[in-house]
Amino acid sequence: MQAIVIREVGGPEVLELREIPTPEPVADQVRVRVRATALNRADLLQRRGGYPAPFGAPQEIPGLEFAGEIDAVGPLVERLRPGDRVFGIVGGGAYAEYVITTERMAVPIPANLDWIAAAAVPEVFMTAHDALRQAGFVAGERVLIHAVASGVGTAALQLVRALGGFSIGTARTAEKLAAARALGLDLDLPADGWLERLGATVGEVDVILDLVGASYLQDNLQALAPRGRLVLIGLQSGSRATADLSLIQRKRLQVIGTVLRARPLEEKIAVTQAFARQVVPLLARGVVRPVIDRVFELAEAAEAHRYMERNANVGKIVLHVST
Q: Which domains does the chain have, with CATH numbers?
């Protein structure tokens, strides 16, 4: 099969399209003929040598999500069959024509999603849905989403709206905020000066989903209402920060850190199954939808990485793998 291989640590130019052996499923595994996959910032970090794939995942082939059809199954597979359309997350290896995964992490694709749309769903909607669950989000709460025009941000704002919350978002450009408003964002705030604008409008918030990191920590603590919850999803602005910890005490705040890729298999299966039960029906009814910025061919993976590094995208960048 063909796959994108990281030749060595470096820039996008180290991504090469190569012919490698096709994997075979064993036990409860299924082999998926990948029709499309999508980029995540973890792919860029892995290429640069800063985020190795977890044990058992291909170290040299990036790609954390897939959409395709099953073409072979292991002897212990019970539910899925060859020809079934499925999508899901993996620890790596999805920039390829075939990928192996356990049956319990392959979710049937709703009929209204084509391959490209389906590929833009798993990582961002699972991440956003799981973050809201960890925060204990309930209907009626106000949720602030930093980097709201990102893949996770666009998924999160739609889920908040669908589940009865009030969505607030920050972004660096007016164009990104406009795109978020078109998806139903209730209140948009510029990345510069967002805390003051928030205070002048809705005041404090109940939940913050933060994909930015260090530079927002102190302001996040100030923005949270008593018993508020901050979920740290991304660290684009860095991982070290100084903050007034007394705010956490006085307001009885919770600060929750989350990752998806590095979790134990059983935890990722639980996240996948919760997504299948609670989010896939919303996708099937069109209540929420994937947001796609641009589509590249698999052989154009290096250019797709360069595009992501420019931080201009709204929603997902997809790689079309095979027809």
A: 2-121+264-320 (3.90.180.10), 124-257 (3.40.50.720)
